[in-house]
Amino acid sequence: MRLDPAIVQALSLDPASTTVASHGSSGFNATAKISTTLKDGIQKHFFMKTAPGKDAKVMFRGEHASLNAIHNAVPSLCPASLATGQSDDGSYFLVTDFLDLSSRSTAAAVEKSSGLSLAAKLARLHTTPAPQPPYFSPSKKLVFGFPETTCCGDTAQPNDFRASWAEFYAENRLLAMLEKCERNNGQNAEFRSLVEKTVQRVVPRLLGDDHLNDGKGIVPVVVHGDLWSGNKGRGQIGGKGGVEDVIFDPSAVYGHSEYELGIMNMFGGFGKSFFDEYHRLCPKTPPVEEYADRVKLYELQV
After folding, report:
1. Would you tell me how many other CB atoms lie within 10 Å of the CB of residue 27?
2. Global confidence as pTM
């Protein structure tokens, strides 16, 4: 494989000591491993995704911002994204720290790790306030959204900032998904009526500012946004530290922590012991008796 000059420049690589080879697989893009030798003789690896078209530009910008939002909050939870942009050939790229999912959990590797389980790391992510956009700071009001459009699978998700979590979930997820369905498949009056009733009645009833968390409001946190068993594993990040529980391929948003649990619950892969540990560290939002209803509501995001 040939390494595009734009990627060489973005990572400040020496082409003479750098190689690239196909690595892994993806349903949406080509994936590769970049290997280079630094000036001190140490070998360093990167993971790269490439794809043509404007959709790839949106997807990679969203993943770049998502990975770094998670990494900044809990560094041992996912690799950092190092660069995204357009190659000289017109395609788009994303380059991250290399996540070695083939690393073996030896005693030495475990000793070098953070020692935190996936449940503990996710709870830490979900109890760390998300950064707020500077242009909202004069109002001192917390907002929900994300700086970039993100993609859950190949579905682009609008993340315009909203002052209300209920408004964000209704407008940016349920109604946005309805509009995409209608563009792709045509209108269905019964389906539209069901979605609109959910937006008008169920969302305010369960997620309204005057109701959720006993009317005290919620603090937006970074959520992965597409967390299922296929987007988690154990590996070493960037050739440093030990083998860790890690997550990848995020579609992040600054939102309600329980929003994460919709996809997790729907697709499975997280058992009772996981959720018991997670909720000891990140308690269910009041009213607790409506927790199961909220998780079911969040399953509708996809």
Report:
1. 6
2. 0.94
